[in-house]
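Subject: Interface between my chains keeps coming out wrong

I've been trying for a while to get a sensible model of this assembly. When I model each chain on its own everything looks fine, but I need the whole thing in one frame so I can look at the contacts. Pasting all components below, labels as-is. Any help appreciated, I'm running out of ideas.
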Amino acid sequence: MKKLLAMMFVLLLALAACGGDGDNEEAASGDSEKVKLSIWHNFAGDDLRARSVRDMIAQFQEDNPEIEVDEQAIPVDGYRQRISTVAAADELPDIFLTYAGSFTDEFHKSDLIQPITPLFDDNPEWKDSFLKGALDPYNYDGELYSAPVAMSATSFMYYNKQLFEENNVEVPKTWDEFISVIDTFNSKGITPLAMGNKAPWVAQSTTFGAIADRVTGTEWFMNAVNEDGASFTDPVFIDALNHFKELVEHDAYPEGANSMDNTQAEQYFAQGKAAMMINGSWTISSLSASVSEDVLKNIGITTVPAIEDGKGAGNTITGGPGGGYLLSSKTEGAAKDAALDLIYTLSNEEAQNTIAESNSMVMYDLELDQETVNPLFYEAFNLVKSAEFAPVYDLHLTSAGGEAVNNGLQEIMLGGDVEKVAQDIEKAQAANK
Amino acid sequence: MSTETYKQNSSLGFSLKTGLFKTIRVLFLTTFSLLMVYPLYWLITSAFKTNEEFFTQPYAFPTSFTFENFQRAWEVANLGQAMINSTIVTVTATVLTIFLGALTAYVLSRFTFKLKGVLVVFFMLGMLIPVHSTLVPLFTLMNEVGLLDTYWALILPYTAFELPIAIFLTVAYMSTIPKELEEAAVIDGSGYWGIFFKIMLPLSVPALSTVAILAFLRYWNEFVFALVFINDSSLKTLPLSLAIFSDGFSTDYALTMAAMTIAVLPTIVMYLMFQEQIMKGMVAGSVKG
Amino acid sequence: MQSSSKLRGLLVITLLPALLLYSFFVIIPIFWSSYYGFFEWSGLGDATFIGFQNYLEVVQSPIFWRSFKNNLIIVGASVLGQVPIALGLALLLRKSNMFQRFVRSAVFLPMVISTVVVGLIWGYIFDPELGVINAVLRSVGLESWTRAWLADPEVNMYAVAVPIIWNYIGPYLIIFIAAIQNIPGEIEEAALLDGATGWRKLVYIILPNMWGTIKVVIILCISGSLKAFDQVFVMTGGGPAQSTEILATYMYNNTFLVYRYGFGSAISTMIIILSLILILISQVLMRRKD
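Reply #2:
Try treating it as a single job with all components included. I did that and got this:
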């Protein structure tokens, strides 16, 4: 009996001690003169870009021994959740990777981040080299909060050159041509379009955004987002949804598109089972890592077909600035200087170039060396530099509004009612504005 | 060979009818077993394939058995460290679960006292709770007491969430242990603790091994708590390391399969070792009333 | 026997550690979470108190009730699938020879795989193009039966339930085997003397003696399937168009995808309440059978 009591005490003590241990550790490392700096990002994987970014941070650590960088590479799958959980508990790291749009807006609204404007003032040449509009999403009341280290270009049309030749089909430039190409491939038993919409943002981000922009024009969308004289129940938006429904009704997508993931869809396309695929720039990096050179050479890339009677331009690519690093509002003094230093190191011209050379798009004006990058990437990057951007839906909608669009498109793919989908989207967007 | 042993064991009264029945039974059980094992077989064979092979021939036997995927997965995801962490967390939490579960079950199954009914319901409540609903409050709570980023940040909540089921199973089992044994022990001069350690604990081995296995597997494979409560990359457990080959846009299936295979192997080995233990425990522990 | 103060001391010492641990990590967070349910809170910044609004919204949300219905499908599939299969197997596997041990190990094997991996593997098995199910159907000429199992709202909820059943037969089997082996030998011998063999023995001797265990397993089954999350989350994420949404994914998506912490917390509280009601109902039903 006594023995057991003693055991119990030891156990409780051990628990208490271990709780204490954590604190002691922090205190102990605090009194050394090293500046502590924490950075969280989602470049955890084995792909080229992730490795390059981790290398840059390692290099920074080596160059600055007086700074102690605490780096956390969190798998993308759990990244948003991790960041939101620590933000809810007010425990954000000094520097963390964000996504442009509503994700960043939330941090700004809650005063959890601070501007990095001085960095831009000190490096005017760097600032001017960003592509047009690159800094807009991070500009709140004239202060800049981040520099994008990625470009999200979400709607390229990839096509299988061989399949088009074999079946005597031209790459479609207009909507009518597009529909007739879809019918032709269907009649030959070839799936017209590959899509992996299991994670339901795919249809919205890669396909619908581009179609909708062609139908409604960009201005209408921005008004609808702000509930400012436009609504998602407007006829023009119903028309956009109907264009998407037209694709579904012409059996453009394979039966299981809603249960395929993006990688499966890309492979489905690469294997020649589908003639076309509308997908983002990420497809280039993942295909160049996983398929043979011959397969890659057979892939062509262009923009989504124009819609002649629409209100928007016909050759836009949905996309814009991607993620960048944010600085926590709690970081002050020496840590802040070090943090600014690190953010610059990860976003300057050299960094942008390194990222681009890993077949990943950036919002920075670079002359790419055709020899060193993948030809498909080279083609795509130049396509983007010359084209206009259209907004990606879920980067501008509230998270609830974006979810409603994602779910609505899946509903339409399952034969759902367009009007009802429009109402759901409007309701979600208006309620959580 | 398995049919051989089978026949020997059931050689009593071997008529044609029962023979046919037994053949059907063996066939049925074999098919069923293969169905149960197939997905695991698929996982392991897939781990040997290149990404291209994985997509073009998802069900074929791998063309070559190189360990390249395993090697890369091991290095990139730092699986060695992750395995050590998972072992520490899982073993500690399992031991804690068994001990606290058995102790509580002993009291709840053997004594009557005022608040007993309330306590039982109170513990059972825990079986209904979706762990995800407690994420944010738990995070805040553990942050306050400085538990985050320690092994305890996983060990304690794991144990706490597993306690209801451990207690539930053990109480059910202990209730079947006849009172007479205790009375005999009391006559021999054992106190409550003596009864617990000398009688209840050993006799409950079958139930406790079941509890241990369930707990072990749950802890070894748990993802969400590990994701949220552990920052320090040197403390990361295995399931966290499996997710890093998927970045939302693309998934490196070859490396994912390899990493998953590496993660699954210890549990299979553990189970195969443990299984004998349970079966023996069952025979030894089955009380003839 | 022994003094009551000693007993009281024993109760305190034995129960306290488990009770403290459990309260701190399980019970307090639940109450905390149901308290969050009264706020409009994005997880960042300030929360606004809005009374019962979130709870009202949950109760009025058709998706919530659809998720509940889907949960019931999983509960039904588990109780009607896992329990009979595990029980049947346990009866067939009462010996401990090599073959039976092999079958037992095979049945338990899925249990050792992490639920995330289970979801991933079955996602592949159900794949309309590459999946082995459609491949088998095609090869036996049942082309018309092939489907996009996870994408087609008519069947996907049932498809999703299969891996969950597959995953958890093992532990129930082991519990049943243990129970059968614990049926006192004298009872069986007495039954044999009375001429009870085969089915009669099963119905009159084995099953009644196992009823307690069966009840335990059914309760475990119900509470387990109400908490199901990982497999569904990995296979479909609740989609397409929320057709396989279950309570836990609905809560998760609202909390971590849409950042409505208050609303998500209200959903979790409702899940606990609904689960309690279900368990109570099943308890009452099973008590009547006794």
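Reply #3:
Confirming on my end. The two ends of chain C are 34 Å apart (CA to CA).
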